[in-house]
Amino acid sequence: MMYLKYDSHIHSEFSTDSAAPMEVMARAAVERGLLGITFTDHYHPDYPDFLHRTGQPTSAYHSAIERTARQFSGQLEVLRGLEMGVLTGPTLPACEAAAEAYPYDFLLAAFHSTRSETFDGLGRARTMPPEQLCLHYYSHVLTCIRAFQNYDSLAHLNLVDRYAKTPAGGGAAREVLDEIYRTVIAQGKGLEVNTSSHRYGMGTRTTPTLEMLRRYRELGGEIVTVGSDAHAPEWVGSHLDEAGVLLRAAGFKHYAVFRKRSPEFFPL
At 126, is the secondary structure helix, strand, or coil? Predict the structure, then answer.
């Protein structure tokens, strides 16, 4: 039986990289004994790869969440979310408009790319040393969150670790990482523990790492959300308890679930 009962990062067929109907994802959550899930399908208005570029979330997406919530009423709490691919420039007003177009419970800010290149593409191309790629990535994150504050939690902060391992202590990016934590804390936002690192076989390089979570807490961070980043039913709720162990090791006593854009805290 799982100890953590809420999965705050779930995708469905409304994401370009998932084919799973919401009903199937919700049923998987019920079967695993979860109390609640948050659908956070992708919104990437200016993603460089046109295959995964998405327009404004549609009424069909919103209706599907509401229909699934009604269908599983009394069995599972179904919350309304979005994972926004945040970029500076003209993407910012698009993200602002998306955030305000519907009464979401939870908004994730994600950083999969710059305007011209994806970070997985840069990692595979190996056109820059790993430490330089990490600095490039974290500098991009910091620039974005200084310009955009209409989010609740940073999704998979060390996403770059899938392609280039962040050095111990942050390496050249240490000061940038500290500034990310301070900015998130000052804005009253949170960090996500994303359990997909277990599926990617990243070992101790969890998302974020224990070291990163300890530093965030040391600087005053209190809000942490937990999500599987499931794109298929077999991933729903996966490794949530490992996330709880990680958070306790970092000194946290609670994790947060957002309802109506406000965090509610549950004991670890």
Answer: coil
For residue 58, tell me if it sits in a domain: yes
In a domain, 91, yes or no: yes
User: Measured between alpha carbons, how far is 17 from 264 in angstroms, rounded to an integer?
Assistant: 30
Q: What is the DSSP letter of 168?
A: G
Give this prediction's pTM: 0.94
Question: Is the separation of the CB atoms in 195 and 227 below 8 Å?
Answer: yes
3-state secondary structure of 139: helix
User: Could you tell me the CATH number of the domain that includes residue 239?
Assistant: 3.20.20.140
1: in domain: no
Q: How many domains does the chain have?
A: 1
Provide the 3-class DSSP secondary structure of residue 227. strand
Quote the pLDDT of residue 200: 74
Mean per-residue pLDDT pooled into runs of 10, the chain (268 residues): 88 96 98 98 83 79 98 98 94 95 97 84 82 91 97 95 78 93 98 91 85 97 98 97 96 98 97
What residues contact 44, with CB distance under 8 A and at least 6 apart?
Answer: 52, 53, 54, 84, 85, 112, 113
Distance CA 174, CA 230 (A): 30
Range of the domain at 196: 6-267
In a domain, 209, yes or no: yes
